[in-house]
Amino acid sequence: MSESPLVRTYADSGALIVGGTSGVGLATALGLAEAGVRRMVLVGRDKERGDAARQAVREHHPDADVHFISADATDESEVERVVSTAHRELGSLDICVNSTATAYRPELLHRTPATDFSGILTGQALPPMLFTRAVLPLMQEQGGGSIVNIASDAAKVPTPGESVLGAAMAAIVMFSRVAAIEAKRNGVRVNAVTPSLINGTRTAANVLSDGFSRSLFEKAATQAHLGVAEADDLASLIVFLAGPGAARLTGQSISVNGGISAF
What is the pTM of this model? Predict the structure, then answer.
């Protein structure tokens, strides 16, 4: 690529936030709006939650043009529909944040039915891959953009109870790194964020509800001497990665875990 990459300001950017109706995704939407993004599309399964998220962003930033699209992020045709609609509504797609999760609860491998494997792998790893693939040609054509995929520290730390989940998260991280190397010649950046436990999210409530999973994450929380991460902590990093301040940062996997681990 002979020309300089296209790096838009927050105010000039259109953002697609998959999983933007709650938790880290919603915190990111609010953070991007606070940074100056005024055109965004939120994606989720639940229309009621999507409408509430859209309203939450507009309450803080009445001038923001916020859309919600209901879709199944594991369905290729649905993903293509969302990206096409978002591009049409926003005029450009400069930021894509993939923050999806499934109701998975860690369990030791010998207690995990083999029939659950495909659902865990598909539900966790496929959405960011499909959305990255769908937005990439649009960003390449315009000469720039930023994609941020949310995985987890299970991609880096061998943790009892997270064998299949860890495989899915490692897939997201490696996928993001390879995509970054392929896309850099067209000015597109791809990074991954890998949290551990995130206070106040539905995922945290699920894993802390009972059993082996609760014991695992309660123990992990005691190692977070800087404090267990919250959704806003993740959002701050994602907003940075999406913006012009990270114009030369790509192919990285960054943990936000309060000190639970260091990888």
Answer: 0.92
